[in-house]
Amino acid sequence: MRTLAFDGRMGASGDMLLAALVAAGADPASLSPVEDALDVRYEVGTTEKNGILATTVDVLLTETTGDHGDSDPEENGHEHAHGEGHDHSHESDEHEHDEHHQHHQHEHQHTPAEGHGPHRTYHEVVELVGEMDLPADVERDALAVFEILGEAEASVHGTELDDTHFHEVGADDAIADVVGVCLLLADLGVDRVVTTPLSAGGGDVDIAHGVYPVPTPAVVEIAQRADWSLKGGPVEAELLTPTGAAILAHFAEGVDSLPTLELDSSGYGAGGYTFPDHPNVLRALVGDGGGGLTRDEITVLETNLDDTPPEVLGSLQKTLTAVGARDVSILPATMKKSRPGHLVKVIVKPEDAERVARTLAEETGTLGVREHGAGHRWVASRSFETATLDITGQRYDVAVKVASDAAGDVYDYSAEYDDALAVAVETDLSVREVMRRAVEAVRTTE
């Protein structure tokens, strides 16, 4: 499976993603639909970050454009946030500073496009993307990214998606970032995108509603919906922008460390800040990831119980899962003086272990929780398909879990018990027969 892996230790933004993809082998010529639709052009260059040669991609106004709008951040009193080159994607009206123009430590003879063009509503952005004559899959991906941004914006401000008004994210350069990344990813032709935990940075940032800590509200909202993990540091600056977060929320699976790859290409996309000890670059690696199971870093918590009410034991699946447990097992055990008891074993991510252990202690009253450093587990990729069954003229839906390896090869189907039970209650079929029919229905359509 051809895999693209991002190293997220210095965060990500729209321009860093553009640059990293070009550095990893994507053809900048594929960006032409954006240049044809907007008064902008992409300029590809290079810079050095702490001894690392990195690619830059700047979005500039075309020379025929006379109206530069509010493109000068200094004249508008904007502050340069993370400065990941061209990312206007902060929480639209929430941000009045210009996070897009993170200078690349070199001067351009042409005008950067940040802030140029109207600040559009969500629907105006959707209409503009629809008019760009993009390949169907690229248009679908771009609209999905803008929907993530819009939903995050709406959630932060307590509004509806239809009422969302983009400011920076609706400007030409921000649209060029999002659509450009989608075009470059399509050109790169990868089957899978993954990212290691994304660093948000630290400190504070000025937005329209005051001074907020990093990560900003929109990034937090997007991260809650994403598959990848968010972490702080390693510097006091804004490293992860909403545009970067939204793009990766749509495309990328989260992994704890870079996967095993037979590398074909790699590259570095530069951010604008320069730090003394941390190269401000986004690394991208492309190669064959094989078809094995995915390595998932875990640890195991366990405790022995001999006086816990059965109702509490029965609720542990729900209460522990709510705070981060990946799996909960309760096994019968023989305790001291031959008393009957239970052994509770909980699989968790290392970063969730303390929180889950505290909840386990509070729920059960146990005086101690042991932790075993299991290291990792191998997990399948999981997806759900809906089987529609026709039983005596009535149609019933049953969800079926499909397990596959990293190459997408399916090796197991499992119908959801609760769905099958609901169908069995309304028909004369057994739960087992409903599950069999659901699995067969999905298997024959694969």
TrEMBL record:
Any one GO MF annotation of this record: lyase activity
Keyword Flavoprotein: no
Region (Disordered): 63-118
Keyword vocabulary terms for this entry: Lyase, Nickel
Pfam families according to UniProt: Ni_insertion
InterPro entries hit by this protein: Ni_insertion
Keyword Hydrolase recorded: no
Stretches with biased composition (Basic and acidic residues): 65-101, 108-118
PANTHER family: NICKEL INSERTION PROTEIN-RELATED, PYRIDINIUM-3,5-BISTHIOCARBOXYLIC ACID MONONUCLEOTIDE NICKEL INSERTION PROTEIN
Entry similarity comment: Belongs to the LarC family.
Protein name: Putative nickel insertion protein
